[in-house]
Amino acid sequence: MQLLPTFDLILFGGTGDLAMRKLLPALYRRVACGQISSDSRIIGAARGELTLEEYVAQVRESCQEHVGAEFDEATWSAFAERLSYTKIDAKQEGDFVRLSDILRGREECVRVFFLSTAPDLFAPICEHLARHGLVTPQSRVVLEKPLGHDRASSAEINRRVGAIFEEQQIFRIDHYLGKEPVQNLLALRFGNTLFEPLWRRGRVQHVQITVAEDIGVERRADFYDRTGALRDMVQNHLLQLLCIIAMEPPATSDPDAMRDEKLKVLRALRPLVGRDVLTKTVRGQYKAGAAKGQPVVGYLEEKGVPPDSTTETFVALKVEIDSWRWAGVPFYLRTGKRLQERLSEIVVTFEDVPHSIYDRPDTAHALNRLVIQLQPDECITMTVLAKSPGDGMHLKPVNLSLDFSETFKTRTLDAYERLLTDIVRGNLTLFMRRDELDAAWQWIDPIREAWQRYDERPKIYTAGTWGPAAASALIGRDGFAWRNEI
Ligand code: NAP
């Protein structure tokens, strides 16, 4: 494991949910691997008046919970030595003097400003950092999603942050890109010759991308109700996954070569505008039902949700890409809360054989499928037909599985571990460029506008199901079915 360059990581929002559940445990794990030098520092920052002891105790508790059985006292001591806390209110210019004192004399080392706060604080924090002379050539700023709520607000944040940091210093996180199976999908596509001839119209019948959550809005009701599934999930995670599937092979592994190709996909998405939106999208909202065998309330009864809210907790879309490679191949995307299972997967279904000479299952079960599962398990499975043992030539589907932890006998990196090490190294490959983000919003905004113009209300689905029946009809009209419905 290669040692990272010495860094100071200033974690704005260092007491928040994301920091405690994901970021600090990911850093702990990198300390456990010996990748973080003893003179690197992790500096939590938030408005709370916490002593160092209080902060360290909070972080310890969350690392114990989220690192689980791998937590040990020796690693914890090494991690705690690198940890500190400073009180900063992002809106108080004066509070940044304290940060200046902490960072003085460390101008040569890598400086990471990780903004794990609400997006309305991104620009003010960057502007305060600049006014206090804290932005060095070795600095990077990390922006968590959501980056604005539409194209205009996202452009405004990017403009203000871009006035202070160079584009190659800005790391816009989409943690789905850091997941091991997404990395492996790239390896599969661009490290082998096998798939390239099949990866196109004429060979691929259709593609499905599902990001299903079994949880409700939890503690995020206020944020979620202002956002909805389209902006919370499709604008970033689902479109990024679609780009990874649909992009052309980049000429090199250079970050911009990869990001150029993703941008081309976003620009080739057929716009969904006007009445077309009503036939190619489905909005849904969950009502009371069950989750893991227990009764759960509907979205409108969730604490913090207005009782007359029309925010969608589910969305399904049919997406088309106007390019030589993908013309005529539909991509079906769906995501939602309080669905039957926690499941994130990409399913590439290939065309049927032109003529069958054997006894085989019905077409839906006979097709070759490549399933890239991101959650709950990280694995890639290819379904092929094989002869069933015994007399006669009866074909049955079998799975060829690539189980990473089984094959490599090692723990795979969590997405945030990978992304944090890439940030310190300055590798931008897995981060969204400004023009990509802009292109994604440009495609998303007209969908919301059409929903508003035609007063498209969400269709109600029962919590614990796979969403509204209209989502099955959306894909069913083309003669296909979601994988869980086959
Ligand atoms: P959170 O639990 O509400 O935490 C927010 C953090 O920001 C707290 O540490 C809070 O501490 C601090 N903060 C609030 N106002 C501040 C101010 N004026 N100056 C300095 N610090 C301030 O939020 P979160 O869930 O961690 O999410 C953080 C960001 O990541 C959000 O943009 C969210 O959308 C995004 N995100 C979160 C998740 C997730 O799983 N949680 C996933 C993806 C993206 P004080 O109140 O003490 O200041």
Describe the structure.
There is one protein chain. This protein folds into 2 domains: 7-144, Rossmann fold (3-Layer(aba) Sandwich); 177-412 and 444-485, Dihydrodipicolinate Reductase, domain 2, CATH 3.30.360.10. It has helices at 17-32, 52-67, 73-81, 96-103, 122-131, 151-162, 180-190, 221-246, 255-268, 276-280, 363-366, 404-408, 415-425, 434-453, 469-476, and strands at 7-12, 41-46, 83-87, 110-115, 139-143, 170-172, 204-212, 281-287, 289-291, 294-296, 314-319, 331-336, 343-350, 369-375, 379-387, 395-403, 459-462. 41% of the residues are buried. The chain is built from 15 helices and 17 strands. The longest helix is centred in the middle third of the chain and has 26 residues, at 221-246. Helices cover 36% and strands 21% of the residues. It is an alpha/beta fold and 486 residues long. It has a 9-stranded mixed beta sheet with strand order 16-15-14-13-7-12-11-8-17, with helices on both faces. It has a 6-stranded parallel beta sheet with strand order 3-2-1-4-5-6. Bound molecules: NADP nicotinamide-adenine-dinucleotide phosphate. NADP nicotinamide-adenine-dinucleotide phosphate (NAP) binds at residues 12-19, 46-48, 88-91, 116-119, 121, 144-146.
